[in-house]
Each structure stands twice: as structure tokens, then as C-alpha cells.
Amino acid sequence: MDSVENIRVGPLPADSPYMKPFRLYYIQNGKEKNWDLIRAHDSVAIIVFNKTRNVLIAVKQFRPAVYYGLVAEEYEKTGKVDLQKFPPKDAITMELCAGIIDKDLPTNEIAREELIEECGYDVPVDRIEEVMQFRSGVGTTGSLQTLYYCEVTDSDKVEGSGGGVGDEIIEVVEIPLDEAKEIIKQGTKHTSPPGFLFGILWFLTNKAPKL
Predict the structure, then answer these.
(1) Residue 22 C-alpha from the chain's centroid
(2) What is the spatial distance between Cα 163 and Cα 60, in angstroms, rounded to a whole number?
């Protein structure tokens, strides 16, 4: 997963299927303003709890955006990336199972597909419970994310599935509940996105079995 090399930066193609940068012009309180934005897909994310072993199910993957955040200052000065100084493993994040909404399907059906493709669990949609909807990237995209909760068992696991599709490289990880509590302790530092941290906090507050 962290075997990453030949890193370079180029302009965003106009036909990118994932994002469209643009500038929004508007008048607020009588003053002309503008804001640079990105049109991006809405998404789903799923908090997954395996009841058989009392563990949360998450995914790990290399995130180019996180990596560039680490190397941007040096790259913009030198045009190079020092892989020894900035090992790609530092940009591997732990996240909720998630995916963009790029199909004309109900969001719970898309969540079910992501659960199979990324984590390898096959469950009916009536076991996927909507938690809430919220806006992410409020300074750049304002995309809508629908958060779900799903309880699975070992019997829901499909042999040979999970780990992503196509050229995705995803590792499925299990988080014991005592470790989950450590993740959200004050003072911790993460590469994980806030949605992952919020998902753990929501689970511990609302669904975690009483120990």
C-alpha cells in the first residue's frame, strides 16, 4: 500500500469526473464578494460494528491529498519530493467505509455496495440505519454526506470480497472498543478525517455495548 513513487503534480484536466473548480461571485450585505469552490460528489459513510467479535470495522488507504499536505511546502520550493523524509506511509489514513454517490440509486443501496466492496460484508438494506446527514468541506465543496450505521456478524462476510474494486488498494481493519476509546482521547493526533472520529464518538455514545 505504501509503495508509492514517481510523484509529480500537474493541472487538473477539465474533464475530471470527480471535481470541478470554479469561482462563485455574490453580493453580501451590499458588498461584492467571491469564493473559490470545487463541485464534488455527495457521499455516504457507514459506521460498521461486528457483533460477533465486538469490533468496529474501518478501512485504511493511501490518500494523495493527505500526502500532498505533508510535502506541499517543500515540493513548491524544489519541485521534488524526498520519499525518505516524507514516507508515503505517513499518508495512510484510517476511515469509515465510504464512497461517492455517482449512481442513480438510493443512498442506502450505495452504502450497501460500499460495505461489500470495501469491507466484504453483504447485508440487506433494512439493516443499514441512517444516522444523519451533514455538509463536509464547507469552505470548498459543501458536499452532502449521509452517515449510516450497520451491525454485521462473521456470517455476513463474503469470501474473497472487500479491499476495494478496480485499482483501489484498501485494507480492512478491526478496532476493539478499548482502542476506539483511545482514538478519540483529548490530545491525540490523526491523519484520519473528522467524519471517522465523529463516527467513533457517535457509536460509543449511542450503540456501544455496555462493558
Answers:
(1) 23
(2) 9
Closest to 183 in 3D by CA, of 172, 173, 170: 173
pTM, two decimals, is: 0.94
3-state SS of the chain? CCCCCCCCCCCCCCCCCCEEEEEEEEEECCEEEEEEEEEECCEEEEEEEECCCCEEEEEEEECHHHHHHHHHHHHHHHCCCCCCCCCHHHHEEEECEEEECCCCCCHHHHHHHHHHHHHCECCCHHHEEEEEEEEECCCCCCEEEEEEEEEECHHHECCCCCCCCCCCCCEEEEEEHHHHHHHCCCCCCCCCCHHHHHHHHHHHHHCCCCC
Tens-place pLDDT, residues 102-158: 999 999 999 999 999 999 999 999 999 999 999 999 999 999 999 999 999 999 999
Report how far apart, in Å, the C-alpha atoms of 95 and of each of 102, 114, 170 are.
Answer: 20, 13, 10
What integer pLDDT is reported at residue 196 of this predicted model? Answer: 97
Joined together, the cell numbers standing for residue 169 give 488498494
Question: Which residues contact residue 158 at a Cβ distance below 8 angstroms, ignoring those fewer than 6 apart?
Answer: 116, 120, 121, 122
Q: Which residue has the cell 463541485?
A: 39
Q: Cα–Cα–Cα angle for 178, 70, 76, nearest 5°?
A: 170
Backbone CA torsion sign across 90, 50, 113, 116: positive
